[in-house]
Design goal:
The complex is a heterodimer of chains A (414) and B (277). By secondary structure, chain A is of the alpha/beta class. Chain A has 2 domains: 4-288, Aldolase class I (TIM Barrel, Alpha-Beta Barrel), CATH 3.20.20.70; 302-411, no CATH class. Chain A is 39% helix and 9% strand. In chain A, helix 3 runs parallel beside helix 4 and helix 4 crosses helix 6 (182-201). Chain B folds into 3 domains: 2-120, no CATH class; 127-186, no CATH class; 198-248, no CATH class. Chain B has 9 helices and 8 strands. In chain B, helix 1 (9-19) packs across helix 2 (47-60) and helix 3 packs antiparallel against helix 4 (79-93). Classes of the chains: A alpha/beta (414), B alpha/beta (277). The complex binds iron/sulfur cluster. Iron/sulfur cluster sits between chains A (63, 65-67, 70, 72-73, 109-110, 177) and B (274, 276-277). Iron/sulfur cluster (SF4) sits between chains A (63, 65-67, 70, 72-73, 109-110, 177) and B (274, 276-277).
Amino acid sequence: MISEEKLRILTESAKYDVSCSSSGSGRKNTGGLGDGMPDGCCHSFTPDGRCVSLLKILMSNDCVFDCKYCMSRASCDVPRATASPEEICELTIDFYKRNYIEGLFLSSAVHISPNHTMEALVRTVKLLRTRYGFQGYIHVKGIPKADEGLVTEAARYADRMSYNVELPSERSLKLLAPQKSKQSLLLPMKQLQRERALFRAEKRKGYFLPAGQTTQLIVGASPECDGQILRLAQGLYRAAGLKRVYYSSYVPVLHDSALPDLGSPALREHRLYQADWLLRFYGFDAEELVPPEGDLPSDLDPKCAWALRNMHLFPVEVNRAPLEALLRVPGIGARSAQKILAARRYTSLTFEHLKKMRVVLKRARHFITASGKFYGAGNELAVRGLLVAGEAHANATQLSLFDGAARSALTGEL
Amino acid sequence: MIWFFDGSKQAFLTAFVYAYRDEDAVLSAGNSQLMLGQKSCFVRADAQKARRAEERLKTIDPACMKELDLLLRSGENNRGQIAFAYFRLIAARQCPVRGMLAEDAVTDAAECIRRVTTELHRFKGFVRFMESASGALYAPIAPDHDICDLLVPHFARRMPHIPFVLHDVRRAKAAVWDGKHAFTAPLAQAEIALSADEAGWQALWKRYYASVNIPSRARLKQMKGYMPVRYWKFMPEDPASLAESLRQAPKASPRTPQDGAPHPNGSPRSPHGCARP
Ligand code: SF4
């Protein structure tokens, strides 16, 4: 059994990785322990409001790299620990059996060398899948600059892998994470995407990253604007086939002349998530949301801002508008749009009906008609004023539209 | 007239047959308040009547019996009436009605079912097993709705070789997987001899839970929204005491402007953290 102190050190250095999702894998139990839940599953929630789904832990926090923003970097004076593959496996199995977790999220600092580290990760997940017969969720972090063969082997056992891009441009990487390069992150991502596509095309038996790849970007540690970041994200979704891009506001914890003294406002991160959602589930392009050298507006969510720039497309009639048009109405989310499609088959919907169906009309009323009736403010200036006021109110009370379980987020009404 | 029934499917269908033509009928699964001057009647299950009603309803809407099962599992007092209104609409319209979201009976039933299935989904995560000396697992639970047997297939699929007991302490019943079969049984109290390592794993889990939390970022309201306090009782990570210790501890570091602002997807305040090779 691993010691409590080691567990503490390796958890505390892992906990800032944003991704905790256990979704996307339908791995079946074939006689061992565990299986995948395609929607993912939250097992607990910590007082910081985050979901605990996976055992998120580092193999080692003893790093030879020296990224300027990181507490585990070589030049930082912190307690170090390294776990053995057996310690990680036992911990995973015994936590999983008791239903504490949905699986393992295994990452590591670069201990001794990239290959040495990647080998340790591979050995651990292989052991877990074969000797321990574990078929629950496994997310493995890729180590940049490790050999291609090791990367492929990890993917044979993992449900999901991620290389964190972290900094949105090569220049910023050079400055802040000198041992990494854009290529050292993008190449293995592309390699995995290629191999996964081949695996699927040949309909081979078994699994190869059923839950795909994700990545994380730090926002505000470097000067890139939202326009650049969203185009990068869109490229990662469309060209590299990523399942998810996570954004993480920079907050200074270490002083360095290359880093800004001030953190990035969390509102910016929030707006990026909203825009990201629009890219993935609402049929928007980055180009529609923000100019290449610009930032997302802070006083309005990106969908409202887009709608105000395109008032000539509104109002749409809820009884006739196609799904794609409904999804573009501010305040109408995926779930509301589906409800409208279902209900309008039986009757011509009025505002009363929409209210009863719990479609939130506060923003939507400016952009729709229901059975010909319109209750919006009419002119663009008035609408903008009302939307901004509503948004400020929402900001003051709660803005955590996208927090927590993937399930609730997926239906988040934007 | 108030028609009382015992909460079972057969009794509901029998009561449905009686009450269908009664304009202001109320169906109650036993715990609604009797109003003065209101007539009432207790309906006993009639297997034949129930079977015929089920057949008829199934020909109108093949999927509706699954909904009835979920509605009757609800712990809400008015579940009988919600189910009655929904099935009366099916019978009146002679077609599936679940898409008619502008009808109160449909939205009420859909919401009620959603609350049951939401709890079911949540409990796939919130159940906590402990290991007994024999290796079998035991989990006490106290769900709002009668769902313990619905959880069995989920756990039996992922741990087919490990026998386990899900003990609904509120309803004094247990759903059991013995390694081959699933069944339910009445169970008031259980005495469990724990395995030698059980306390050690619980302590490690508690330590993990405290370590993965970001203390400078207390968001208790959100935490409780996702994981209501009434579910905390059987969790060895002891969310209550961690939440309490944070509330009492003085703020270690000055609050940054980020605090209190949104954190989509639970992303961290600080990107320092390793885990980003
Ligand atoms: S590689 Fe960079 S980010 Fe990762 S642990 Fe080492 S110093 Fe930190």
